[in-house]
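Entry 14. Structure prediction run on the chain below.
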Amino acid sequence: MYRFTLPLVVAVIAPLSAQAQQPRPADEGAMVGPWRIEVMAKGNKFDGCSMMRRANDVGATIVRGPDGLTLVLDSPKWKLERGKTYPVELLAGGGKWSARAAADRESVSIPLTDAGFIETLRKADALQVKGDGATIAVPLDRSTAALERLDACYEKNSVSPDSNPFVAPNRRP
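Output returned:
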């Protein structure tokens, strides 16, 4: 049985391509197979958790935030039109789902809103994202365990002091 500890990491949310270029401390986040699980924050406020990996010159990140899961793909080779959306088809484990990918200069983000596809994705070995004339393959080895760790990270860190019975409420003097 593996045990992982995940310290609260405060990081400024930047475009993923910029994050990938910054050196990371060895003790930041937890590894589950090829996936790095990290806490995300804006300033001192918890913003969500992410799991990321790089394969074939493409960074794949799944972000768990208050609105659910979002898949972000990035590559320094891409030259996309910021603000444009692209139709994409996601294929994983026999499941297929059509979505819109919102572009930044070197990345796209796809909110994962289909519960059935998310469940299929959790069990799949690979993900393919098909766009206009290109297919991006993301290996999902150990993604079931990584997604479970992502959920645990989010649940652990999203508890506010107002709803946590082990934290005294703020009192005014």
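Confidence is low (pLDDT under 50) at residues 1-27, 161-173.
Filed with the rest of this week's runs.
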